[in-house]
Amino acid sequence: MSAGQKVGVINLGCARNLVDAQMMLGRLKKDKHRIVGHQQAQTVIVNTCSFIEEARKESIDTILDLLEQKKSGQIKRVIVAGCLAQRYGPKLAQEFPGVDAFVGTPVLDRDNERPQVRLTAKHLAYVKICESCFNTCSFCAIPQIKGKFISRSIESVVREVSRLDAQGVKEINIIGQDITAYGMDIYRQKSLARLLKEVLKVCHNIEWIRLLYAFPAHFTDELLELMAGEARICKYIDMPLQHISDHILKEQNRHMTGVQTIALIQKIRRAMPQAFLRTTFITGLPGETQDDFEQLRSFVKNFRFERVGVFVYSKEEGTRSAKMELQVPSKIKKNRMDLLMRDQQVISSEILQSLVGRTLKVLIEEKEEVKSCHSERSEESKGPLRSFGLKPQDDKYRTYIGRSEYDAPDVDGVVYVRSKLSLKPGDFVQVLITDAYEYDLAGQVL
Ligand code: SF4
């Protein structure tokens, strides 16, 4: 590609993929290309996801859409990058001859000093501390796609965080496939707590450090103690548990039993009673019996997680579980997912309702135009404004959308904030919570 091209990216999948896209754009910018929104681009990169069937479908639909745009002359080049290209490159090239190039996932190196073009808001950043995973869960293809587990050096992460701090970032999200395994390769031991202690030393503007993608079997007491004692580490734990029955945890190869899982959750609840726990479960792994599912259902009801995502088991090529007998029919998998999500909706509303009357620290993400929101806004989100008793002409107040430390970007709910003060993205405000909805909160700046 000759220099000076207008290049844009469509990023699909998870935050780890987003960091890969930022690194690709950083490299292209270094090579004198102009980084623009994908709508204005001559060359569009689609950074694909291949985690499960649904994600692959979205990736392929996006490729087809871009090839249509190329055919009609709207764009000149289509580049397919990311996990789908990494996993099925040659096959994709046969299926999509119109694609100009297939690029696998960038390899993270220990001292990862690659320039990045950040695709997040100025006040928010993702910091990838390690790549891939060696846990080999029986249903997961990620280790095949991403290769050998690798941790960045503490020095390289601290340098990156220090740069982000100087750029005025307020919240960093620490990510990897399994951040709790951080350092087990280069330092021969779980070193996430050690890393965080060094990172905290360079956090002067950064007020929130959020930990995403923890693996229960690698969650240490040292990490828990640090989280409980450090105000700048969000009281938020994202830790996929996937199941609770011993039979299925063994079939999933999760290195944990149901009893050990419960003991860990109870320990976390004791150390940080106010913390929000986000987790995910899979329904319908081959061999899952009605009894296994009932165990999971009562576990979710009894332990009342603040945030829950449920996936139906997806038979992934090359994984151990794909070869297992007793594959569960799709209808049953789906029914079990629906039942769990229905139970969780009730739990989520009750937990959020219990926050009414509390004051939460909220990070402002964007201003909400009062006038526009009444006419264009979806029924569901008119609720918060109605609860404020706001009318279109009522411009004494402004409303904003923000997040509390209990809301991870793009996956959790938001806080609708009413304020007489003029606020800007990146501001932290104390908000008195006045209303709660299924997944969102509403409140007023004190
Ligand atoms: S820990 Fe996560 S990324 Fe690693 S194998 Fe298991 S599911 Fe996949």
Descriptive overview:
The structure is a single chain. This protein is of the alpha/beta class. The protein folds into 3 domains: 6-102, Methylthiotransferase, N-terminal domain (Rossmann fold), CATH 3.40.50; 124-353, tm_1862 like domain (pyruvate-formate lyase- activating enzyme, Alpha-Beta Horseshoe); 359-445, Beta Barrel (OB fold (Dihydrolipoamide Acetyltransferase, E2P)). The protein contains 13 helices and 18 strands. It has helices at 15-30, 53-71, 83-95, 142-146, 154-166, 192-200, 221-229, 246-251, 258-271, 290-303, 330-353, 370-376, 379-387; strands at residues 6-11, 34-35, 43-48, 77-82, 101-103, 124-128, 130-131, 150-151, 171-175, 208-211, 233-238, 276-283, 307-312, 359-368, 398-404, 415-419, 428-436, 441-445. The longest helix is centred in the last third of the chain and has 24 residues, at 330-353. The structure holds iron/sulfur cluster (SF4). Iron/sulfur cluster binds at residues 133, 135-137, 140, 142-143, 177-178, 215.
